[in-house]
Amino acid sequence: MCIMSESPSTPTTRVVYQANQPMLQSVQNVRNMLHHTVRQHIGKKVQVQNIDGQVWEGVIISADRGILYLQVTPMHGYPEPRALFGPTILPLVLYELLVITLLM
Predict the structure, then answer these.
(1) From CA 37, how far away is CA 33, in angstroms rounded?
(2) What is the distance between the alpha carbons of residues 96 and 88, in angstroms, rounded to a whole number?
(3) Distance (Å, rounded) from C-alpha 68 to C-alpha 91?
(4) Taking a C-beta distance cutoff of 8 angstroms, is the pair 100, 48 a contact?
């Protein structure tokens, strides 16, 4: 992480955060690997845990531009998806996912 106090652009703007090159490359590598892996399991039921410990269960609908689209099923107090006037699709950021487990 690189925090900059001055911006090379204009005097009216200031960069407060800019990812350093090794971190950017690492995030891109993880995103690309997960995208490829998740695309192979579209239509399958999974359990997903993110880096904050949140857990969801559902079916992988799609993966696009670093986002996993998961049609969730009722779990841990979540309402029945039909109660929300149709399926509930959660967009999850791929590089924030810690575990994806296939369910049978």
Answers:
(1) 6
(2) 20
(3) 6
(4) yes
| 20-69 confidence digits (pLDDT tens) | 999 999 989 988 999 999 999 999 999 999 999 999 999 999 998 889 99
Whole-angstrom distance, CA of residue 3 vs CA of residue 38? 33
Which pLDDT tens digit goes with each residue over 55-82? 999 999 999 888 999 998 665 555 554 5
DSSP-derived pairing of the beta strands 97-102 and 89-93: unpaired
C-alpha closest to that of 48 among 33, 39, 59: 59
Alpha-carbon distance 104 to 102, whole Å? 7
Degrees, nearest 5: CA angle 25-26-32: 85
The pTM for the full model equals 0.70
Phi, psi for residue 18 in degrees, rounded to 5: -150, 125
